[in-house]
Amino acid sequence: MKKIFLLLAAACVTLSAAADEGMWMLPYLQKMNSKDMKARGCKLSAEEIYSMNNSSLKDAIVIFGGGCTGEIVSPDGLLFTNHHCGYGSIQSLSSVEHDYLKNGFWAMSRAEELPAPGLKVRFIRRIVDVTPDVLGAVPDIAGGGEREELVAGQVKAVSERLAGENPGMDVEIKSFFGGNQYFAFVIEVFRDVRLVGAPPTSIGKFGGDTDNWMWPRHTGDFSVFRVYAGPDNRPADYSPENRPYKAEKFLKISLGGYDEGDFAMIMGFPGSTQRYMTSYEIDRLLEVENPQRIFIRGERQAILKEDMAASAKVRIQYASKYAQSSNYWKNSIGKSRGIRRLDVKGRKQEQEAAFTAWAAKNTLPTEGYSNALNLIRESVEETAPYFASSQYLSEAIGRSVEILAPARLAVSKKGGELTEALKAFYKDYNMPTDRRVAKRMFRIVGENCKELPSVFAEVIGKRFGGDTDAYVDYLYDNSVFADERKALAAAAAGTDVSNDPAVLLNKSYTAKMRELAAAQLAGKWKFADGQRLYIAGLMRMQPNKAWASDANFTLRLTYGRVLPYDPADGIHYNYYTTLKGVMEKENPQNPTEFTVPARLKELYAAKDFGRYANERGELPVAFLADCDITGGNSGSPVLNAKGALLGLAFDGNWEAMSGDVAFEPELQRTIAVDVRYVLFVIDKFAGAGWLLDELQFE
C-alpha cells in the first residue's frame, strides 16, 4: 500500500493559488492551504482553525440534526443554523393553534425555550487518519467483494479500538478518494436541543420555490436553537434540570460586513459531490436518474400542494415533507441544465482520454490503471436496468407511499416503543392525501417501471384486473395503518398484523428492492475497483495538483472571496442584496412565497435599521462568496479573515448547479444570509434583543 500513501502525501503539498475549488480536510490545512489562505488575507493560523490538542475554531461547528450544519455563537450554547434546517423541528412543534411556521416563534427567556424532540447536535472532537490501519493489511491486488470484506473488517476493528479509547463518544470511519484513504471521526452527541427563535415563513422562506437556488435572493434563512447538557456539561437526555452547554469555543459576530474581494471561508459538513464522476455516469444521470426523480417528485408535490392549500392542518403536517422533496427536485432540474449547458460531459471525456493515454504510456497493465475506466463503463452498462427500476421504486413507493412507514414500525418495534413511534408518525399524516398520492404513484410505476414487486402481478393483476386505483382503495380501506386509532389499538393489543395489506405491500416492495440490489452487486464491486484506481491514477498523473476528496458529510473548510458574477452576456449581479429588494418583490398574486410582514414594512419605512445598517445606510439581507459548498453546508458559518461570523450559507446559484459534478470557478457562488439581517430580525422585528446580550462582537 506504500504507493497509495505516497500519492496521498503528494496531494497535500501544492495548491494552485488561482483555484477556489476544494472542500479541504482540516488536518491538512497546514500542509495544503495555510500559505495560500494567508496570501488571500486570512489572519488565522492553521492551528487556530484546527488543533488536535487544543480548543480551536472547529469546536464551534456542529452537525445539526440529520443533514445540516450549525454554529455555536455564545458561551451558553446558543446556536445559529438555517430556517430550512430547523424547519422539521419548527414544524413538529407547530399546531393549528400554535403555528410557528406561519407566525414564527421567539422565546423571551430561557424558561420559554421549547425542547425539540429527537433533535441532536454533534461535535467533532477528534479527526484521525486511519488509512494505514484500514488498508495496511489489504493487498494491492485485492478487489471486488474480497476487498470490501477485508476493508470492512479493518474498519470494524479500528472503530472498536477508538470507541474504547473515547468512552461516551460515537466513532465514524469514512472513506475518501474512492477508498484510497480513511479518516476516523470521534463525535460527541448532545440530545437536549431547544428551539429559541424562528422567523415567520414570510421571512425564513421568503421567495419559496420560485427563488430557491436563485440570485438575487432576499431570504432570512435562519433559526436559533440552544444546546443543553447535564450537570457535568456532557450530553444528557432532556430534563428540566439540564443547563445550557458551556462552550469552550464559540464564534464572535462581525457587524463590519464585507466589501467586494474580501476573504471569506466556510466550515461545515458538505453532504455529497461527484467531482470524479465519469462521462458514463453523466449519461445515466441525465437520461435516467434525474428525469425519473424530477417526474415522480413533481407528480407527488402537485398533490401535496393542493391538499396543503385546502387545509391549515395539512399545510403544517406536510410543510417539511414538501420542502425536502421540492428542494432536491429543483436541484435535479438545475443540475441537468447546468451539465448540458456547460458541456460537463465533454470536459470529462477530455480528461478520460488524457488519462487513458497516460496509463497506456506510464503504467503496467498489472497495476490496473489502464482498465479503470473500462470497469466503470462496464458497471454502468451491466447495472442499468436494475438501477433504473430500483430508483423508480424507491422514489415512487418507498419515499412516497406513507402508509408503509407505520407498517414497518409494527414489524420492527413492540410495546411502548411502537406506540410512541406511531404517535409521532400520525401527528404529521393525513390519510386522504396519502391515498391520493398512492393512486398516482402506483399508476406511474405500473406504466413506467420494468421490474415490479410481486404485488403487481399477484394482487393487482389477479384480484383487481390490473386496476391500481382499485387496489389502493382496498389497501387504505382494509389496513389498520390507514387509521391512527386502529393502529394504536392493534399495537396496544399486540395484534398479529403480518397479513395486513400494508405489511404485505411492504414485504413485496422490500423483496423486490433486495432482488435488485443483489442483481447490481457484482457491478457495484466493479465500479468501486474502477473508481478507486481511476482517482489514484489521476493523482499519480498530476502529482503537483492539490486534490480534494469528494464531499461525504465530514467536516471541511472552503475559502474564497466575496464576489459578484455575470450569469450571462449583458447581465451583472451585485454581491449583496438589501431589504429594499424584499419590498420590491412583494407580490399579492403570490402570497405564499412573496408576503412581507407588516412589522417589516414599518421598520423599512422608518429606516429603523439601528446598528445593523451598512455604511451606505442599507440593511443587507444576503451576499455572495465564491466558496465551494453543497448540500449539508446549509447553516454553515461564513467567516471573515479573523474567523468572525459574517453570515450563514444557505444555497448555491442556479447557473452553477452542475457544481457537484464539476466546479465552475467563474459562476459558482455560495448564497448566505447576512448576520446583520439575522440580528435585525431578532432584535428589531421580533423584540428578542435579550439574546444579543450573550453574543460577543468582533
TrEMBL record:
GO terms for biological process: peptide catabolic process; proteolysis. Residues 1-19 form the signal peptide. It holds the Pfam family Peptidase_S46. One of its GO terms (molecular function) is dipeptidyl-peptidase activity. Transmembrane segments: none annotated. Its EC number is 3.4.14.-. Keywords: Aminopeptidase, Hydrolase, Protease, Serine protease, Signal. PANTHER family: PERIPLASMIC PEPTIDASE SUBFAMILY S1B. Catalyzes the removal of dipeptides from the N-terminus of oligopeptides. Belongs to the peptidase S46 family. This is Dipeptidyl-peptidase. It comes from Alistipes shahii WAL 8301.
